[in-house]
Amino acid sequence: MAAVHKLSRRTRTRIIRGAQYGVFVLVLAIIGFAADWGEIRRAFLDPDVIKELFPEIVTTYLVNTVLYTVTAFAFGLVLGLVLALMRLSSVPPYRWVANVYIEFFRGVPALLVIIAFGFGIPLAFGGATFPGGTLGTIAASLGLVAAAYMAETIRAGIQAVPRGQMEAARSLGMSQTRAMVSIVLPQAFRIVLPPLTNELILLTKDSSLVYLLGLTLDDRELAKFSRDMLTQYVSMTPILVAGLCYLIITVPLSFLVRRLEAKAARAK
Questions:
Q1: Which coarse location class describes where this protein primarily resides (predicted)?
Q2: Domain containing 158: what range?
């Protein structure tokens, strides 16, 4: 017992951590030996099904997922910037409109917004479709929801820029609008770039909700395609492959977020 008490805190921490790692490895080993890998392979990694999925799952459906995500993000970013500036405006009606919008779309599930745009607009306006067809509908429905979150992120970034930056620009004869565009916003976007990249990752996963729109074969994204293939092959392999395709998109973005956060921390 005396020897145990003589151990330093760092040594005890290392011993406890090593024991935890050992238990974790032991549990994984037990699961690995107990699992029926043949059945897992047939259910989730059927090579014949995988061959049937490629290359279309990458060349068409992965591309569609990226396209829907990027267009929705671009729409949401522009609208989010406008809403952030409205939140900070000295004109009360602008602030009220922005507040109502942000609270509404942050509280409403994206699924309901997609249904409203995909089915509500055609029903309300005699079969009229949203400009841009399927792509326009997806970009608007996902972008409207994303804009509410990005507006708050951008607003926080603008407020994080020291007030002296605006005052210095105004003292040089710049108008408030020019100072905001040339001085404040570039600094704000450097601050909020990591959380905006996180929003892009969330949008990538939210794009799976567009299956409700009844997409054509060429308009399907990864989630819709994998569901259809699940029914066709009666195998979970398409779901697993689609999940790996999502990782192809999100893992590099997550790495980018960590790099941006580390860069911002060093800049401080």
A1: membrane
A2: 43-267
